[in-house]
Each structure stands twice: as structure tokens, then as C-alpha cells.
Write a structure and sequence with these properties.
With about 750 residues, this protein is mostly helical. It contains 27 helices and no strands.
Length: about 750
């Protein structure tokens, strides 16, 4: 019974870890709600009225979500500096509230300074956000000079409550966050293996659904890997240990993605295209019933289930003889003599399972330290020796500093000017709609500029905020009618809505706006200012603020979506060429390079491009052809990144792996691919560039490899396949990007 209970708890823990990597959303929601609840409790003990309770709750929310530093010491400094900033801001708000023009001018200046402060990092961003939001708070509660002492006291209580929750009740250290992210990576890796198992068993009519699940699982695993990369420097003081974890995470991600591709190939009559795993909505290749002998199918299903168990129990510290036996069997598939009788494509899947098991072993050693080796078979011992040799070869390196833009070209300066102009327009328009609640338009204008960098991104964010606001108004009307004048019931619902707001914020901006607006309906009820007209005015002010933001972004120092996506596309291509050239150079016998760092930079550049293309791929985009092109290009680039990442990981094995030898011929064979990437980058930067993408013989024929080379005895054959697919994907980029393709020479 106890074992069953532990199993249920473990499954629940894994499910939560996979749905919320690092528990970042849960932590943010609990910390914010806890800070607000503690603030309300303390203020109630002092007999504060409803206005002070609302002000304290809003201040506690701001003091909690504004701070983004990872280290607790830096968070404490920022919170301490934030209190005087908040007190000055609320004081100026109360003094200038009755002075129409002076207050408006100061508000615009404050907005400019708050946005400009982002250039000073997380602390500058937090202090600017606190200054703006607390000034908005003073307008919301109608702060007066006579009430300043009690209002400042409520804000001070809110900041103290935020500190208690942040540092004592719900602390989040970089080390702790990284540990939870590792658990999330394992849970998502297990989910991906489960999806691959479903792909193996899917009937022909279910293949598209099964493939979509694999595609989603692959993307979610990559997302978690990127989150771990972002936390490694702060969460792992030892640089060598950080690089080891980075390496093992990359190995596991590559092995899992490759296993999915091999499974898909085994189900189809021809080689599956890697693009299929990255292009949303791409149809599955035509398949029939699994053309595999029943015994091989059963063995494959058993081994995929065993691999999933190996992943889930990798960090449990309770391996046992049974799990060691499973591990040894899966690692044995790395040797040709241990492969079960099956068609070649299915044997490739068994090899992929063996490589995935090796990556899980390496991940466990990197995260949990040395393991019991008493039950090792020769195949397992060989895998350990390879991993130990790779670990010993890992060393740190310095990253080059990036060139910074200056003046109005600096993003923070440009955004500050745009927001200031947009806010000035919102103030004028908001005053025409309502002389009392004009600040809603300004708030919307401010928010649509947060974490956006192009006109298209601002337009999409404004649309999402307006949509969430409209539905939130309906919810606010219903909740206000239900709550009536029950103060503590209303505050309880406010806490629930705030938690929901923070929990869904990274997932859906529309849902977040919905919960915010519903919460405001309750706050208006508490302040006895609720009416249907007020909530409808909220929709009007939101629409006005979004429109002012779009106008300012389009007319003042505009960054067109095309321009931004082209800039980011150029960056992705540049980093793709760097990774490919460096990896092939090392595989050809050249000097060692920081390949994993280069691959990480490529992944980050691709993530930035994916975010920037959201306005082009949004469902409301009227240009369908353009939407399909953007999705196709991003999917092709993800395919290129996968092959480049694999080449980099293979090249890093070169100094230590006994079955990998440098081959000088690779450099010449891959030269065409690198030149094509550079040609496409030049065309993206200058549409008048005359260079053409080259096509011709396969990479293997350029290499002139011997037909008798064992397929998996040396890694050269695998490197060739990745190079060939990378070359095909790069040539495939030429058509959607309008890059001319030279005809192959006869």
C-alpha cells in the first residue's frame, strides 16, 4: 500500500514538474498571493479601511512580481531600493493628482524613465516598473495629500510582506530552481518517450495525431533544455560542473529527437524527413500497419517502456537490480551483435534506444554523481568509460562580448521614446473618454510595449489584451453581482484571480488579461465605484491605449516586423554557419572550439526569431501565404539547428571517443553547405545580392567514402547523414526566401 502511495505521488510530482518546469509559475503565484494575504492581515489588525486594503494589496503585488533577479542577495537590494521609489512615486501621485497638466507631463516623463531604465538590467527594469505601477496605484485609489502617511504605511507593510514571502516562506534560489528544472526535463523526456511509444502503435488513421504529440513533446523538451541553459551559470557555481550538465542535457535532447525520427522512418516506406518533426500541421508520411515481425514489435514496445522507466527513475536514488538489468540491456544495443533480428530501419530504432539509454546514464552521472557499478555488463562499462573520458575533457571558456547599439538605435531608448509618445496620446484620448479614469488607456499603452520589439508584436499583444478585457468585463459583472458587498469574500476571489493571473501569464496573455479585468471588477466593487458603465469604459480605454501604442510604434522610430524578423533571421543563419563550420572543422582534425556554447547561441537566436514571427503566424493574420511561409522557414531552421547541434555534440566527442576519428575530407565536403548558409544570409541582408545557392552531388559522393566502411563501426557515416540533411534543408530555405538556386553542373 505504501509503495502504491509513493508511486501515485511520484506520478503526480512528475506531471506537475512537466506542466510547470521549475515550478516557476506556481512559485510566482503562491508568492504573490501570500504577500497580498499577509498585507491584508496586517492592515486589518491596524483597522485600515477598504481603500488602504486595496492599495496595500496592489503594492504587495507590484513589489513581488517586479523583481526578476535570480540571486537572493540581489533581490534584497532591489526590494530595499524599491520601497523609497514607491514612496516617492505615491507622494508625487497624490500631490499632482489635482494638477491636471503638471500631473500629465510628469506621468509621461516617469513612463519614459521607467522604460529607459531597462538598459540597466533587471534592477533598472524592476525600479522603473515599481515607480510606474505605484503612481498608477495612487490614481486608482484617488490618493490625497492628507492620507499620505497612512498610504505610505500601507505600502511599507506591503513591501515587508513581500520580503517575508520571498525570503522566508517561498524562497527560490537559483540552485533550487535548477534542481526543479532538471526534474522537469526528466519528466518531459519521459512524456516524449510515451508519445513515441504511441507513434509506434498508432493505426494509419491516428498517425497525424500521434505525430503531433511527438512534435509537441520534442518542442517542450527543447523549451526545458533552454530554461536549464539560462539557469546554469547562476545555479551551478562550478563552471566545469555547469558545462557537464549542459553537455548531458544536449546529449539527451539530441538522442530523444533522433529516436523519434528513427521511429517515424520505421513506420513509413521511405526515409522520414526531419522537417516533419518541426513543421506544425505537417502530415505524417504514408504508413500501413507496422511492417515489423510481431516478435520485433513486442521487443521494441518493451524496450521503449523500459527506456521510459529508466528516465523516470533516473533521479530516484532507488535503481535496484531490475533497473540495472534494463539499463544494461538497452545499452547493449550499441553493439551490433546484440541487435534483435529485424529489418534495417527497425534495427536503427534499437540503436537509437541504446544511444538514448547512454544519454540517460550520462545525465544521471552528471546530476546525481557516481553510481553503483557492481551490476555493469561490458557494454555498460564501456559507456561509463566513454562518459568519464568526455567529462575529463570538458573545460570552461570565455564568450566574446557582443557589440552594443547606441543612441536612438538602442532598443531601450527607442522603446522609451515610443512609449512616451503613445502614453501622451493615450492621456489626451483617455481624458476625452473619462476625466477620472483616463489612466487605463495609459496602462494599456505601457503594457503592450513590455517584451515587444516590433509593430507587429505590439499589434498582436494589443489585440490579445483587448480580447481578454472584453471577456473579463463579462466575468467581472457576474462576480460583482454574486459578491455584492461581502468584503472578505471579494478579497478571497481577488486572491484566486491573482494566482490564476500569474499561473497562466507565460502561457496565454489573453487569459492573463481576462483574470486581471475580472479582478478589477471586484476591486471596483470593494471601492464602491462599480457599475456597468465603469467596466464598459475599461474596454474603451483598453482599446484606445492599444491603438495609441500601435500608432506610436508605427510612426515613431518604427521597427517593422519584416525588418526585425530579417535581422533575427540573419543572426540565426550567421550562428548556424558558425556552428556548422566549427563542428566540421573539429571533425576534420582542426582545433577544439566552444561548440556547445555556439549551439546554445544558435538555439537562443532561433527562439528569438520564433517569438518575433508570432505576428506573421497568428491565426488572425489575413495573409495566409505569408503565414505558411513563416512557419515553413522557422521549421526548416529548427531542422537545420537539430543537425548542427548533433554535429557539434559529435565533434565534442572526438578527443575521447574510441570510435570517432578525425576525417580531413569532411571540411571540403561541407564547404558548400556553409557557403550556401552565408549566401542566404547575404540575400536576407540585401535583396539585391547576386550570389546563388549551389546544388550538386551528395555530400557522401564529395567525401568519396568507401562503400565497405561499417555502417556504425565509425561515426563518419552518421556525420555524413547529418551533413546531407543539413545541406538539403539549407537548399530548401532558398525557395521561400527567394534566393536563386544555381543549376547543378553537368
Amino acid at each position: 500500500m505504501r509503495a502504491a502511495g509513493r508511486s501515485v505521488r511520484a506520478r503526480l510530482r512528475d506531471r506537475i514538474a512537466a506542466s510547470d518546469p521549475g515550478l516557476l509559475r506556481l512559485t510566482a503565484g503562491l508568492r504573490t498571493v501570500g504577500a497580498i494575504a499577509l498585507t491584508l492581515a496586517v492592515l486589518t489588525l491596524f483597522g485600515a479601511d477598504v481603500h488602504l486594503l486595496v492599495a496595500g494589496a496592489m503594492a504587495a503585488m507590484v513589489a513581488t512580481f517586479a523583481i526578476r533577479e535570480k540571486q537572493l542577495g540581489a533581490q534584497a537590494v532591489t526590494l530595499a531600493l524599491g520601497l523609497p521609489v514607491a514612496l516617492v512615486s505615491v507622494t508625487l501621485g497624490a500631490v499632482l493628482n489635482a494638477r491636471l497638466y503638471a500631473g500629465d507631463v510628469f506621468f509621461v516623463v516617469l513612463i519614459f524613465c521607467a522604460v529607459y531604465g531597462r538598459r540597466f538590467g533587471d534592477r533598472g527594469t524592476a525600479l522603473g516598473l515599481i515607480g510606474f505601477q505605484v503612481y498608477f496605484l495612487s490614481l486608482f485609489v484617488g490618493a490625497k495629500v492628507s492620507a499620505l502617511p497612512t498610504l505610505c504605511g500601507a505600502i511599507a507593510v506591503a513591501f515587508c510582506a513581500s520580503a517575508v514571502l520571498r525570503f522566508a516562506v517561498v524562497p527560490a534560489t537559483p540552485t533550487g530552481v535548477l534542481l526543479r528544472l532538471r526534474l522537469a526535463f526528466r519528466a518531459r523526456l519521459a512524456q516524449l518517450v510515451s508519445a513515441q511509444l504511441d507513434l509506434l502503435d498508432a493505426a494509419p488513421e491516428e498517425m497525424d495525431k500521434a505525430l503531433e504529440a511527438v512534435r509537441e513533446g520534442t518542442a517542450r523538451l527543447h523549451e526545458t533544455a533552454m530554461m536549464i541553459q539560462a539557469q546554469l551559470e547562476e545555479g551551478t557555481p562550478d563552471e566545469s560542473a555547469a558545462r557537464l550538465v549542459q553537455r548531458r542535457i544536449a546529449d539527451a535532447e539530441i538522442a530523444a529527437e533522433r529516436l523519434g525520427l528513427l521511429l517515424l522512418t520505421s513506420r513509413s516506406a521511405e526515409r522520414a524527413d526531419t522537417l516533419t518533426l518541426h513543421l506544425p500541421g505537417a502530415p505524417a508520411p504514408s504508413v500501413g500497419k507496422p511492417a515489423v515481425p510481431d516478435e520485433a514489435t513486442a521487443t521494441l514496445r518493451r524496450d521503449l517502456q523500459a527506456l521510459r522507466a529508466l528516465v523516470l527513475r533516473a533521479g530516484s536514488g532507488d535503481a535496484g537490480t531490475g533497473l540495472a538489468h534494463v539499463r544494461n540491456r538497452l545499452l547493449g544495443y550499441r553493439d551490433e551483435e546484440n541487435l534483435p533480428p529485424a529489418p534495417a530501419a527497425v534495427q536503427d530504432v534499437f540503436r537509437g534506444i541504446g544511444e538514448a539509454a547512454r544519454s540517460v546514464l550520462g545525465l544521471r552521472i552528471a546530476l546525481d554523481g557516481p553510481q553503483d557499478e557492481s551490476d555493469d555488463t561490458p557494454a555498460t562499462a564501456r559507456s561509463r568509460e566513454e562518459l568519464d573520458a568526455e567529462d575529463a575533457a570538458i573545460d570552461g571558456g570565455e564568450e566574446p562580448a557582443e557589440e552594443k547599439e547606441t543612441g536612438l538605435r538602442r532598443p531601450t531608448t527607442r522603446a522609451a521614446v515610443q512609449v512616451a509618445v503613445g502614453s501622451a496620446l493615450a492621456i489626451v484620448g483617455g481624458e476625452l473618454l473619462s476625466t477620472q479614469r483616463w489612466y487605463w488607456a495609459v496602462l494599456t499603452c505601457w503594457i503592450v510595449f513590455l517584451n515587444t520589439a516590433s509593430t507587429g508584436e505590439i499589434l498582436v499583444k494589443g489585440y490579445r489584451r483587448l480580447l481578454g478585457t472584453v471577456f473579463g468585463v463579462v466575468a467581472g459583472i457576474v462576480l460583482a453581482g454574486l459578491v455584492g458587498q461581502h468584503t472578505w469574500t471579494a478579497f478571497g476571489l481577488v486572491l484566486v484571480l491573482i494566482f490564476a493571473m500569474f499561473y497562466v501569464a507565460p502561457l496565454s496573455y489573453t487569459l492573463m488579461s481576462f483574470f486581471v479585468t475580472a479582478m478589477l471588477g471586484l476591486l471596483y466593487t470593494l471601492l464602491h465605484t462599480y457599475s456597468l458603465d465603469v467596466l464598459l469604459l475599461r474596454v474603451e480605454e483598453t482599446a484606445l491605449g492599444a491603438a495609441c501604442g500601435v500608432v506610436a510604434a508605427a510612426l515613431v522610430l518604427p521597427v517593422r516586423t519584416d525588418r526585425r524578423t530579417n535581422e533575427l533571421l540573419g543572426t540565426v543563419l550567421e550562428r548556424l554557419a558558425d556552428v556548422t563550420e566549427a563542428a566540421v572543422g573539429q571533425l576534420s582534425g582542426g582545433p577544439a572550439d566552444e561548440l556547445l556554447d555556439k549551439a546554445r547561441d544558435l538555439d537562443q537566436a532561433l527562439a528569438d526569431l520564433r517569438a518575433a514571427t508570432q505576428p506573421l503566424t497568428h491565426p488572425v493574420t489575413p495573409l495566409r501565404a505569408r503565414r505558411h511561409t513563416a512557419r515553413y522557414v522557422v521549421a526548416l531552421l529548427e531542422t537545420c539547428a537539430y543537425h548542427a547541434r548533433t554535429l557539434a555534440a559529435t565533434a565534442e566527442l572526438l578527443p575521447t571517443h574510441p570510435s570517432i576519428a578525425a576525417d580531413p575530407r569532411l571540411r571540403g565536403a561541407a564547404g558548400r553547405t556553409v557557403r550556401n548558409i552565408e549566401t542566404i544570409a547575404a540575400r536576407v541582408a540585401d535583396e539585391h545580392a547576386a550570389a546563388r545557392v549551389e546544388t550538386g552531388p551528395s555530400i557522401a559522393s564529395l567525401l568519396g567514402s568507401d562503400a565497405g566502411t561499417p555502417r556504425y563501426g565509425r561515426i563518419t557515416d552518421r556525420v555524413l547523414r547529418h551533413l546531407e540533411r543539413l545541406d538539403e534543408a539549407v537548399v530548401g530555405l532558398a525557395r521561400p526566401l527567394d534566393v536563386p538556386v544555381a543549376e547543378p553542373r553537368a
